[in-house]
Amino acid sequence: MSNPYSGYSDTSISLNPEKLLEDHLGLIRYHAGQLIRRVPKSIEFDDLIDSGVLGLLEGAGRFDESKGIQFKTFISFRVRGAMIDYLRSFDWFPRSMRDNSKGLQRALSILEQQYGRPAEEEEVAAYLDLDLNAYRDRLDQVKSLSVVYFSDLPATGKDDDVLNMIETIADNPEDVPERQMAMLEFADHLAEAIANLPLREKVLLSLYYHEELNMKEVALVLGLTESRVSQLHSQMVLRLRGLLNLDIPDE
């Protein structure tokens, strides 16, 4: 899937809905394509597109260029956030799968503390009393929860002024010192967690999220099957969730 930012410029931002959609449909399709691979087959690609369009329109109306944030960065958060909010509105993840996901995350965390390093697949499988293939099958089953919801991220603020991390990032953190501190602290924790990932998972993270390759392209780079990359991605996210103390949602 091509990079939707290629050749894009912030020099001309139109608030005309038709022009906005024309300019940013590629970005919407890009994020929908990333997410659709990690959700149940009952979720329609076109429904993700529709939610992304709503995020685009809502975000464009809230954009303030005086805050020094690039429009493409701001609107990308809003589009992806709208899609993930749409996904979260469904109760499509069975309790048994949530329990399996929590068990995997807990096993990865316990073994890391025990060994003082990231646990190997074989070690996690043995801890869970599974053979390696069964462990990988379980990673496949919980891939839907490898979508990290924005509302799972740390929140900042008090009383009625609570913002989740995505709102802090999308806003200007210099407006409120507490927000800036919260974002910097989370960034430090995230960087530390990433540094503790196994090398192959670090490479996967860089290729998928920084270089913006899709799963098929990552598989070609790593010399693995696309299914295997998907399993490693699930394991990576569960490992990061544990390192960041993010609980699997119960709802």
Mind explaining what this structure looks like?
This protein is mostly helical and 251 residues long. The chain has two domains: 17-88, RNA polymerase sigma factor, region 2, helix turn helix motif (Rna Polymerase Sigma Factor, Chain: A, Orthogonal Bundle); 95-152 and 180-243, Butyryl-CoA Dehydrogenase, subunit A, domain 3 (Up-down Bundle). The chain is built from eleven helices and two strands. It has a two-stranded antiparallel sheet with strand order 1-2. Strand 1 (155-156) and strand 2 form a beta hairpin. Helix 4 (95-115) crosses helix 11 and helix 6 (132-141) crosses helix 11. The radius of gyration is 19 Å and the shape is globular.
Features:
251 residues; mainly alpha; Rna Polymerase Sigma Factor, Chain: A; Butyryl-CoA Dehydrogenase, subunit A, domain 3; 2 domains; two-stranded antiparallel sheet; 11 helices; 2 strands; disordered N terminus
Output the CATH topology of the largest domain.
Butyryl-CoA Dehydrogenase, subunit A, domain 3
| C-alpha-based Rg, rounded | 19 Å
- Broad shape: globular
- Quickly name the level 1 CATH class of the largest domain: Mainly Alpha
Please give the share of residues in helix: 55-70%
Give a short synopsis of this structure:
The chain is mainly α.
